[in-house]
Amino acid sequence: MAPPKNRRPGFSKRAQYSIFASYLLGILGAIVGFLLLLISIFDPQGFSVLRTIGAEATAPVSKTLSDAGSATGNVGENIAAYFNAASKNTAMKRELKKNRIEILEARSLKQENERLKRLLKLEKEVPDAIGMARLISSTASSSRRMATLGLGITDGILIGQPVRAPEGLVGRVVEAGPTTARILLVSDSQNVTPVKRASDELPAFATGRGDGTVDIRPINLGTNPFKGGDLLITSGSGGLYAPGIPVAVVIRKTDTGAIARILANSAKVSHVIVQPMFQAETVAAIKQEKIDEAEAEIEGGE
Asked: Across the chain, what does the average pLDDT equal?
């Protein structure tokens, strides 16, 4: 049979001894306290000596407990400081990221303002400019390199007109709608631009490679005097582009000519101006000549 849960102390000698010892200690403590009280009243000087002895005896224990408490407090302070530092570090990182974004935006705005200033200066230098507008879009992955201009027929835009930026030639208008126009970029493989070397006016042709560069072929195929750093500008041949517009800079020589980097990259150009054709009559005459040749071939075939 299981023993009852609430057993009285009398059933256990150990419990009886514990109770007796606690009573005895309590009585002794009361007697000692009473004696100390009597000594403090009738012999204050002796009580002071006893108090000093007690303080010296308990000093190591008190010091140990004090050091333990101080260490515990320091640990708590260190933990709090750690978490506070982590929180401040996170806040500083957020602030730094925000400042970086603001700096990048400010730099972008500054570059845009500088481009607009150069464009306005260019527009003043080109008094016959038809208009200034933003490039709405440009192809980057298509096989053709085209761009859309925010001007159209209502603004005086016509097919064949050159489009340029402060950096140089961008391309020419190939399609025109009421309010927008399509530009064939210099980098397009179907675009052939008559150019010349700025240093000595050596004539050549620039043909787009579709990757932001152009192939430079000299008119005299027997010679290849190009070298890195040569600046190529429009020659004025063909009557479409006015002479002197920057086009590209040679980056390396090839067996048949050179490869040059286009100066007015449509991916970086935001605003452009449209110029009239340099010699519209010459261009019209060339077109008419091509039409006559095509008709003659058709008649000959019949």
From this structure: 76
What CA–CA distance (Å, rounded) separates 157 from 151? Answer: 7
User: Distance (Å, rounded) from C-alpha 75 to C-alpha 148?
Assistant: 67
Three-state SS at 27 = helix
pLDDT tens-digit series, residues 196-219: 999 888 999 999 988 889 999 998
Distance CA 293, CA 283 (A): 15
In total, the chain counts a number of residues equal to 302
Please name which of 145, 182, 144, 178 lies closest in space to residue 163, comparing C-alpha atoms: 182
| CA pair distance 147, 170, nearest whole angstrom | 9
CA-CA distance, 259 to 249, in Å (whole number)?
Answer: 8
Q: Report the alpha-carbon distance of residue 185 to residue 188 in Å, rounded.
A: 6
Q: What is the C-alpha separation between 140 and 163, in angstroms, rounded? A: 18
pTM given for the model:
0.57
Q: What is the pLDDT of residue 250?
A: 94
Closest CA to 232 of 161, 144, 168: 168
CA torsion, points 169, 189, 256, 167, in degrees to nearest 10? 20
For tokens 């010699």, the residue is 279
Question: Please, are residues 144 and 183 in contact by the beta-carbon 8 Å criterion?
Answer: no
Highest mean pLDDT among 77-86, 109-118, 275-284: 275-284
Give 104's contacts (C-beta < 8 A, 6+ positions apart). Answer: none
Taking the C-alpha atoms of residue 118 and residue 268, their distance in angstroms, rounded to an integer, is 14
Alpha helices in 126-213 (DSSP H): none
**Cβ neighbours around 128 below 10 Å, total:** 7
Q: Which of 106-110, 257-261, 285-289, 292-296 has the highest mean pLDDT?
A: 257-261
Report which of 286, 229, 226, 222 is spatially closest to residue 257, judged by C-alpha positions.
Answer: 226
